[in-house]
Amino acid sequence: MIDAGTLQPALGGSDDQAARATVTVGMTVALAALAMTFAALLLAYAIVRVQAPAWPPPGEAPLPPLWGLRLGATVAALAGSWAMRAVGGGARPARALMAATAAGIAFLALQGASLHALGAAGVHPGSGLAASVVYALTAFHGLHALVAVLLSLASLVRLPRQARLLAVVAFWHLVTIVWLVVFGAVFVA
Amino acid sequence: MDARAVSEAIHPPPAGFWRRSVFSTDHKVIGRQFLWLGLVFLAVAGTLAMLIRWQLAHPGAPVPVVGSLLFPATGGVVSPAAYTALFTMHGTIMIFFALTPILIGGFGNFCLPLLIGARDMAFPVLNMLSFWTMFAATAILTASFFTPLGPPAAGWTSYPTLSTAVGAPGVAQTLWVLAIYLNGASSVMGAVNYITTVIRFRAPGMTFFRMPLTVWGLWLASILNALFVPVLAAGAVLLFFDRVFGTRFFIAGSAIKPGGDPVLYQHLFWIFGHPEVYILILPAWGIAGDLLSFFSRKPAYGYKVTVGALIAIVVLSGVVYGHHMFVTGMSPLLGEGFMVLTMLISVPSVILGVGWLGTVWRGSIRLTTPMLFALGLVTVFGLGGFTGLFLADVLADVYLHDTFFVVGHFHLTMSAAVLLGAFAAIYFWFPKMFGRMMNEPLGKLHFALTLVTVIVTFGLQLVIGYAGMQRRLADPSAYAFLRPLMPLNRVVSQAAFVMGAAQILFVVNFFYSLFRGPKAPANPWQVGTLDWTVPSPPPHHNFDQVPRVFVGPHELGNPAVKAAHGVDFQPQNQESPQEPPG
């Protein structure tokens, strides 16, 4: 039979420190790629916003700000990352993972609620440029938040090696950071 | 034994067929899977090219033999709509699903761990996932051929407005976007692996400046992949949202309804697209650099300078994308900036060329098939590179933009040159991959026919473009001023048909050698890189003992080695002979 160790020569063996360094390099590259994706999306937003004579562009109704839902989502994202911070320490990773997963689910629920509220207010992806930006960035970021939640659920089911657990933590932090940037750039600015 | 070697334990090969041959995590199996996938789609995209050339040589005439099968509605004639779909799919498949999988997926996977003395990639499961993501992407793209409104037809660049839900109402363009996104995801997974493997898994003594140029090319291409493929992904995401959910990023506004900016897509596309051409050519350059040294039996001339030039090109490639957009109403000041940066690339490019010529110069050259293809790459890339100077110049580009001059230029540089590099790699590593030798005379004939037809086909396209024929015209003979070019177009097509037919030689050679070729020794080319120090094909774990590296990859023609060991090459894991005292 093949166990996970056989499939992962890089992570196998006794030298956890070497495996950790390897995962760190790989995760850095992967997160850089993900960060570039969001950077490019934000660049696209910046270009359409700079080109518009006003924001939202003339002819588009201002979007409902939904401060309650979005601030709530921001708090949930920060809470999730804060809980994840404890995972690295290694004392009780399962408990920290559970807390982070709960925060992640709360984040997804609040984001879903804010998109639902937009729809209820008659704002659709095609309503205008400002609505396009809100829908696209919220949804695409939400997909990554979903992946983060699924990763921590999977880690709860079967606790991975320390090196991989740290990769999950790093992914969580990046998703949180991207949300903070999106929140600042799209909803506050 | 050092810590790194401990972390790379030997594992027995998996027993079951599925784990061993299909869902394998062995980089050698995954490399072969990528190679097969790339070769199949190379054949598909090549066939599409033949149909394109038929239409440009004989517009309005039904395609012989297969015409009524492929285009039943028009009685075998390539309609303008079908023509648009043909060049769209030809470009898309060639770039994303043929050349990339062969060189980066295939040889990247197969060679990289072997060349640096590792037992596998850093993340083997991710590696397997990378292949199957690519496989899913090809399945989706293939499905787009069979949609009700026909295959995608917005060009390989898929610019809005053509690619929006208005310009391309069918589901095919949406499938194209999905396929490109998945293809990008696969490339990034590969890049994570390659970058990490080179940083962490080099054998003891394998310093960065002892790595073969092939590894440098693959590693630098992976860095570009990791940084710039995500930008294309972002463009694909927004295009997907525009098409499926009705957002308005790329839909131009009107007086009554404000909107986005179609040119925005072009920025996102080319921020990725220019690095992409280097992603394609960097591995081929690296392979050529190594092969020229191996078969000239002397060290690569200016190895470190060559590496420096490669790095300079990687850096510059990220800041020149605007030269694809000179005619989009770009500010002249910005255009001039992009022009200067683009022209700067010719400096490291010429340094590369000098390195290659210096390597061959006064070498004891062995004209094997891989060597011939490497020399062909240098020739063809040289021709194509010079024509890039014209396109980099804003004033010349305003005239040449969107003509066949561009088509000839990019085919010579990043298509034909890369293809020749891919063939060089196949002929060179086939013995290591499959344990058998390929047929040399057949390979040389394949080379001669391919090189001549490549130069005639794409060289004449430069002439035709200079004379003013636009690309992407379904029927140039419809325009009086282009009618005098029809004889030239026919010559291009005839050369292309010969090129296509010549590939049959390769297919025959490939399959014959696969089953009937003579058994390959461990080191048939007598070179010193680590891949040739293990049996052909290598065992599951590559190296019984993680090698210790003493010298660079090109230790050829050293008289001291010849005196001590009787051969003119020094394996990288062999200590240099002691200097005689005094």
Largest sheet of chain B: none
Secondary-structure-derived class of chain B: mainly alpha
Indicate the proportion of strand residues of chain B.
Answer: under 5%
- The level 1 CATH classification of chain B is Mainly Alpha
Task: Walk me through the structure.
The complex is a heterodimer of chains A (189) and B (582). Chain A is mostly helical. Chain A has a domain at 62-189: Four Helix Bundle (Hemerythrin (Met), subunit A). Chain A contains six helices and no strands. Chain A is elongated. Chain B is mainly alpha-helical and 582 residues long. In chain B, helix 9 crosses helix 15 (404-434). The two termini of chain B are 35 Å apart. Chain B has one domain (25-565): Cytochrome C Oxidase, Chain A. At the A-B interface, helix 1, helix 2 and helix 5 of A face helix 1, helix 6, helix 7, helix 8 and helix 9 of B.
Labels describing this entry:
heterodimer, A: mainly alpha, Four Helix Bundle (Hemerythrin (Met), subunit A), disordered N terminus, B: 582 residues, mainly alpha, Cytochrome C Oxidase, Chain A, 64% helix
Task: Summarize it.
Chain A is an all-alpha fold.
Can you lay out the helices and strands and say which pair or pack?
The complex is a heterodimer of chains A (about 190) and B (about 575).
Chain A: H1 4-7, H2 16-51, H3 67-89, H4 93-120, H5 129-157, H6 162-188
Chain B: H1 3-7, H2 17-22, H3 27-57, H4 67-70, H5 80-116, H6 124-144, H7 172-200, H8 213-244, H9 262-296, H10 303-317, H11 332-344, H12 346-360, H13 369-392, H14 394-400, H15 404-434, H16 440-466, H17 486-516, H18 559-565
